[in-house]
Design goal:
This protein is of the alpha/beta class and 353 residues long. The protein is built from nine helices and 19 strands.
């Protein structure tokens, strides 16, 4: 299912099986999560530099082949044959070069972060999520809305035992971004989650397992979403126009609505933080300084690091995190995206490939 132009639906096409380059794996895709970032790409709110492009960055599949060569530092590596993409120089990627390569037949997950240069100041300081030369699965590299994908072996994760393919897929972005947002909240005891979708339904379970109180905010009138949040054990659920029953130490905004920033600030205790967890957000309206006073802070989360992935995928089975998914066949990817836009399911949407 290929993205060709902003505002156009994905098109079903037949492509050749991609050929992996050095240090790349050929993966037979079993499932791929549908993310709000895919909507931002489809709508042109986040740029796709070189369409056509196969979207999808929450991939679960089996390794069925690998490219030749080891891609040692200094090697020029391409993205596989046939796409006309330029090669890039491989650096020493912090935290990934020493890991054993996934074996053929093993099950792996492919996240949003697909490549970093390994040599910039961000990579060398453990902040590869900010690498200026990063490439992203489903944006710069063909993703998982397809039967096959190629991925850099250093940016793939082993899938925890016990998670079926469909339940594992949302962990690879919704889970990872939610986990990074939660870490930015520090030791906050009372956490608000604005937008109770794929990420929030996962991170709420992690937060509750850590003994925190969780307050869920949905769209106005979304009684089903609020009931879903209560079933997952949150301490309170209401719509985003409501004031929570207690002041919050931190809030995470997953909904791409800038108007929620002053709303979330107004619900904070002194010293609290509002974390914006999306890759795109509508404009933030002006607000009085009083909302920022008392050492309130606003932060954002950008992408992920492989350390985030290793930590979260180790933690998820211990919670244990349960992902609630709505299944769509691959050819119904456009319907899945529109259902996500309209909030017509709870939890996460996953394409069955």
């Amino acid at each position: 299912m290929v993205f060709e132009a902003v505002g156009e639906p994905l098109r079903e096409v037949t492509l050749p099986v991609p050929k992996p380059g050095p240090r790349q794996l050929l993966i037979r895709v079993h499932a791929c999560g549908v993310c709000r970032t895919d909507l931002h790409l489809l709508d042109g709110e986040v740029d796709v530099p070189a369409p056509p492009r196969v979207l999808g960055h929450q991939i679960v599949g089996t390794v069925v082949g690998r490219g030749e060569g080891d891609g040692a530092p200094g090697t020029v590596v391409g993205r596989g044959e046939g796409d006309g993409a330029p090669g890039r120089v491989v650096g020493r990627v912090e935290g990934g070069d020493g890991a054993p390569a996934p074996a053929d037949g093993s099950r792996v997950g492919v996240p949003w972060l697909g490549f970093t240069d390994g040599i910039c100041k961000f990579c060398r300081s453990g902040r590869e999520n900010l690498c200026p030369n990063a490439e992203f699965t489903g944006r710069d590299i063909d993703g998982g809305y397809a039967q096959y994908a190629v991925a850099d072996e250093r940016f793939c994760f082993p899938i925890p035992e016990g998670y079926p393919d469909l339940q594992a897929a949302p962990l690879l972005c919704a889970g990872l971004i939610g986990y990074r947002c939660l870490r930015m909240c520090g030791e906050a005891e009372r956490i608000g989650l604005y937008g109770f979708g794929a990420s929030a339904h996962i991170v709420s379970q992690v937060a509750k397992s850590q003994g925190r109180k969780v307050f869920a905010f949905t769209r106005e009138g979304d009684a089903a979403g609020q009931q879903f949040a209560r079933e997952l054990g949150v301490d309170w659920a209401g719509d985003s126009s409501q004031t929570p029953p207690e002041a919050l130490d931190a809030s995470i905004i997953f909904a791409p609505a800038g108007a929620l920033v002053p709303t979330a600030l107004a619900a904070l205790e002194p010293g609290g933080i509002v974390v914006c967890g999306g890759i795109h957000m509508s404009p933030i309206p002006t607000f009085d300084y009083d909302l920022l006073w008392h050492e309130h802070r606003i932060g954002s989360v950008a992408n992920l690091t492989r350390r985030d992935g290793e930590e979260f995928l180790d933690l998820a089975p211990k919670v244990p995190v349960t992902t609630h998914v709505t299944e769509y066949p691959l050819e119904n990817a456009n319907q899945a995206l529109e259902d996500l836009r309209g909030g017509r399911f709870t939890g996460a949407a996953v394409l069955v490939v």
